[in-house]
Amino acid sequence: MERMEPRARSDAYGSRINRSHSPLVANIVPWLSILLGSLLPVFPIAAALPMVPPLGFLMLLGWRLVRPGLLPVWAGFPLGLFDDLFSGQPFGFAILFWSATLLAIEFVEMRLPWRAFWQDWFTAGILVAAYILGGWMLSGATPTLPSFVALVPQLVFSILVFPIIARFIARLDRLRLRRWKRV
Amino acid sequence: MAPGGTRRSGYSRRAQYNLFTGYIIAGVGALIGAVLLALSFFQPTFFGGPRSAAQDAATPATETVATVRTGSKSLWDSVRGYYRAGSKNAELKREMELARIRLKEAEAVRQENKRLKGLLDLQDQERKPVAVARLIGSTSASTRRFAYLGAGERDGVRVGMPVRSPRGVVGRILETGRDSSRVLLLTDSESVLPVRRAGDEVVAFAEGRGDSLLRIKLINLGINPLKPGDMFVTSGAGGYYPPGIAVAIVTELTDDGGLARIVSDPAATDFVAIEPIFEPDGAQGATTPIEEELGD
């Protein structure tokens, strides 16, 4: 007898027989990855310039734009609260900006429900630029020209790193919906 | 990817209410954020408690990473040391001999200093650091230049204490938690430090610019006496830092002083020492508004 193709009964998320998604993993991965993104910039020691892109914010944008409908509109409040504890900006900055960002994306989505990736990249680029510039203006210190110039590398890097983050989130999304559970 | 169907609530009352409530909560969340932001502008230390608690909670992870970082750095240094080892060795030996002679001379000067101070009845007490700890992190995504330190209130660290590395000043303690604290680095644009030129009495302020350089602002304006390469050390004014610690080297001249590069790069230091406030009374006097009178 001819053997069956071993992968015929599986899809991108694993075998479809005898396996099912884990609700815990499916729900926790987006939140946890954004929290980790907020925490990561603490580790490098940057004494000269802001070098690391705001990874928590980029992860939030990524999840919102790569998988619309997954994060609720109000997710900016709890996630921003956590980011504020570590970011070094005055407390409340991330709560305000992350909530406003999710509302803004909701508005964009209402106008343009079908988008290509480069349109998402454009949206993310504008939002991250607004976020970094807003952070410069509302940092608690007097905004000066040299500190503005010092932002440029971070700004460029943040915009360029978004496609990588989007791919990474697509990977995480596959992990999220993987069929772990034996039934 | 196109949005899923959950946003179109259709005729379902429940879906409509859910959607509407989501928007309301998001809007209220943004408003709360704005209020908190305004609050922390007027009271920057207001949220210090939760912030340092969060930092304390993250300390095990950050401490581990800091240990690995300093370890890998020294490995890299020792690998690099092999490059042109012979000629470097000879040069170092020559320097070492000279340094030994200078050291003996310095000892003699120190002895003489002690004798002269004894004549003048000046007392020099030994200054011991409060704690020695690693820099375990920084706010590398923010415009502000803060670093996190692996020692907190339990080690005796208090707000305002100067932080220094073997090379020079790193910054000042801004907030303390139980096991970690936050340091305002010299490069932050809110950091101001009274300095003087090593070797003479040209006094100035060293202000962070937020772009890795310090701005040296001379107090006595006139002909700019600075030259690129001048070293600035703490002057001891203000009462926080003890005098004579290296701060920065002038690289460029401006109208009212110059731009300087910091001597002690926090990213290149393994351990830093937290020292007690140099003159607590003086520091208190400096923070008291002019309208208020200092008690005794």
Description:
The complex is a heterodimer of chains A (183) and B (296). Chain A has 7 helices and 4 strands. By secondary structure, chain A is mainly alpha-helical. Chain A is elongated and about 75 Å long. Chain B folds into 2 domains: 62-120, no CATH class; 129-289, Rod shape-determining protein MreC, domain 1 (Thrombin, subunit H), CATH 2.40.10.340. Chain B contains 4 helices and 12 strands; from the N terminus they run αααββββββββββββα. Chain B has a 6-stranded antiparallel beta barrel with strand order 1-2-5-4-3-12. Chain B has a 6-stranded antiparallel beta barrel with strand order 6-7-8-11-10-9. The radius of gyration of chain B is 25 Å and the shape is globular. The relative contact order of chain B is 0.11. Chains A and B meet through helix 3, helix 4 and helix 6 of A and helix 1, helix 2, strand 1 and strand 2 of B.
Largest sheet of chain B: 6 strands, antiparallel, barrel
Terminus-to-terminus distance of chain B = 70 Å
Radius of gyration of chain A in whole Å, from Cα?
19 Å
Most residues in contact, chain pair and counts: A-B, 64 and 61 residues
Main structural class of chain A: mainly alpha
The order of strands across the largest sheet of chain A is 1-2
Q: Domains counted in the coordinates of chain A: how many?
A: 1
Q: Top keywords for this entry?
A:
heterodimer; A: 183 residues; mainly alpha; two-stranded antiparallel ribbon; B: 296 residues; Thrombin, subunit H; 2 domains; 6-stranded antiparallel β-barrel; 6-stranded antiparallel barrel; 12 strands
Secondary-structure topology with pairs:
The complex is a heterodimer of chains A (183) and B (296).
Chain A: E1 10-11, E2 14-15, E3 19-20, H1 23-39, H2 55-66, H3 76-87, H4 93-111, H5 117-137, H6 145-149, H7 152-176, E4 181-182
Antiparallel strand pairs in A: 1-2, 3-4
Chain B: H1 13-42, H2 48-81, H3 85-120, E1 131-138, E2 146-149, E3 162-164, E4 169-176, E5 181-185, E6 192-197, E7 203-208, E8 213-218, E9 231-234, E10 246-254, E11 257-262, E12 271-274, H4 280-287
Antiparallel strand pairs in B: 1-2, 1-12, 2-5, 3-4, 3-12, 4-5, 6-7, 6-9, 7-8, 8-11, 9-10, 10-11
